[in-house]
Amino acid sequence: MLRIKDLVKRYGNDKPVLKNLNLEVPGESVVSIIGASGAGKSTLLRCINRLVEPSAGSITLNGMELTGLSSGQLRKARRRIGMIFQGFNLVDRLTVMENVQSGRLGYIPTWRAALRRYPQDDIDRAFHLMERVGIAHYANKRADELSGGERQRVGVVRALMQEPEILLADEPTASLDPKTSRQIMELLQALAAELRLPVLINIHNVTEAREFTQRIVGMRYGRIIFDGDPAALDNDA
Ligand code: ADP
Ligand code: ADP
């Protein structure tokens, strides 16, 4: 369960870009966050994954407070958070397996890190997850030999390798065609249920958000202006 309470974020001395946000996302539920550019969607994700320090308020993940941490605690906390990106953020010249294993490392590997030998347990786990998402037969292919949808599956498996307690996806379908987008959104839904993970998806495509998620959070000027069933969302929202 993710619990956000009275979250405020301001950059420098500017006006806050997040204004007393409150949000709860139970495990196994998927929330799409929509809103115009500048609404604060990325800032919200960056506060949760702690790329930025919130100015005020509280964020807890399964009871653990994510704000106000020391740098050591912060590193640990960030390992609990799986990230999925619009541009996939794979290392092209590395194999799928190497990219996937970097999830365990918690950082993007250099050649040397990638060449280290992985424990058999990690390899088994990677194959299990790759099979689940349908990319196991690509394990030894270079990441840049894969299609967009396949690359995003690699990104998903990499995030899951760190055994996260939440998945955050920043525009995960923005680089994909509609059919592939649908597959990735359905995969995220299924994984949320199977792994009992809360999943937050920043998405600019409102049609996709409505079609693929049961819960939409609409943001505007740093506030949540809608939180609920897509059917209740105004067409012009
Ligand atoms: P969205 O993801 O909804 O487009 P953002 O969270 O990126 O919104 O941006 C929200 C507001 O915060 C915008 O006005 C943006 O200019 C501002 N902002 C984002 N990042 C920074 C930053 N690093 N420094 C200063 N202002 C920022
Ligand atoms: P600009 O970048 O030109 O100042 P924005 O629309 O990005 O204009 O707004 C910047 C900030 O001003 C927003 O984060 C919001 O806090 C506030 N703001 C702008 N328009 C409105 C509005 N119609 N209602 C409430 N707040 C607004």
Question: How would you describe the overall organization of this protein?
Answer:
The chain is α/β, with parallel strands linked by helices. It has helices at residues 41-48, 71-78, 96-105, 111-115, 120-133, 148-161, 178-195, 206-212; strands spanning 2-9, 18-25, 30-34, 56-61, 64-65, 81-85, 166-170, 199-202, 215-220, 223-228. The strands form 2 sheets. Strands 6-7-8-3-9-10 form a 6-stranded mixed β-sheet, with helices on both faces. The protein has a 4-stranded antiparallel β-sheet with strand order 2-1-4-5, covered by helices on one side. Helix 3 (96-105) packs parallel to helix 6, helix 5 (120-133) crosses helix 6 (148-161) and helix 6 packs parallel to helix 7. The radius of gyration is 18 Å and the shape is globular. The two termini are 27 Å apart. The chain binds adenosine-5'-diphosphate (ADP) (2 copies). The site of one adenosine-5'-diphosphate has 5 residues, from loops. Residues 11, 17, 35, 37-43 line the site of one adenosine-5'-diphosphate. Keywords: ATP-binding, Cell membrane, Membrane, Nucleotide-binding, Translocase, Transport. This is Phosphonate ABC transporter ATP-binding protein. It comes from Caenispirillum salinarum AK4. Residues 2-237 form the ABC transporter domain.
